[in-house]
Amino acid sequence: MKWWIKLGCFLTGWNSRILAQCSEASYKHLKKYTAALLILIILWGFTGFCFAQRYVGAPLWGCVMSALIFIVIVIQIERQIILTVGTNKWGACFRFFIAIIMSVLGSAILDQIIFGDDIKRKMVEITDRQVQEQLPMRLNVIDGRLKELQVEIDSLDRVNMSLNDEIAKNPTIKTVSSTTVYRNERQEDGSFIKVPEITVSTNPMANPRIKQVEVNTANLERLRKQQDEFLQNKMNVENDLRTELSSNVGFLEELRAMIEIISTRWEAMVFYVVIFSFLISLELFVVTSKLGDKKCDYDLIVEHQLDIKKAALEELVKNLNQKK
Q: Which residue(s) pair with 200 in the sheet?
């Protein structure tokens, strides 16, 4: 058996032993299903790889894993139709519904890749709008903090001015200290008693308000430094906000930009409809092949085996009921 047939049996889930008993018509059906599956595998493998690389930021092995996951999902979905014995209209309708969903997702991802440069230009416009919306709020926060700092600075300045005036009047203060010395004094009867002698001295010292001024001055320097930082932030707030918004562009942001492009430019809308129609046509390849073509002998053999097994089981049940 050729490798192409083996690959087709692997992808579609067909039994190679049953296929070996079939005619060329079954081989043609298998090749047709395989070709349709390979188209979907290539398409969704590429889509899964690009999605993981562009929006998830996955490494190379992560992108490959994402592509393999997409491929496995597509194969399992198509097998629901290919391996159905007979015709299941409900399954076909459900597959059509899934095809619409997958086409929308696929066209959204592919269009964001194809319209990459246009989306970048549109994102600049969207970023400008977001900056204009969020900039007043950022400025209000900074202005509020600057006002609080200015109140603290003014308060400390007034306290320091008052303390400096007091220090200028009294740069030093006098401290009074006393010492007691006991001396022996002879009494008339010849005995001695200790008589205390107190010495009072006055010593000048620096005004303690000077230390408080130094502490207040250090706090003023810290507050003014914070004030300068907030003023610098206020000057750069627009550029910082623009950089922040530009660096956090995700799938939904680019989808929003793509929707604006499609809704405002007719040529983009036409191209999106073409891509969507192409994808949904590919998704329905297998369904239309399954429903539109006549049954091949592979399907007939599978249905015949099913009928034989069903008849055998019914006969077995009938015999068991008779024995009872």
A: 178
Contacts of 40 (CB under 8 A, 6+ apart): 74, 78, 282, 283, 285
Rounded Cα distance between 247 and 241, Å, is: 10
Q: Are strands 172-186 and 192-206 parallel, antiparallel or unpaired?
A: antiparallel
pLDDT tens track for 7-32 = 888 888 888 888 788 878 778 888 88
Q: Please give the structure tokens belonging to residue 248.
A: 């956090």
Angstrom distance (rounded) from CA 143 to CA 150 = 10
- pTM comes to 0.60
| Alpha carbons 298 and 310: distance in angstroms, whole number | 18
DSSP 113-173: HHTHHHHHHHHHHHHHHHHHHHHHHHHHHHHHHHHHHHHHHHHHHHHHHHHHHHHHH-SEE
What 3-state DSSP class applies to 7? helix
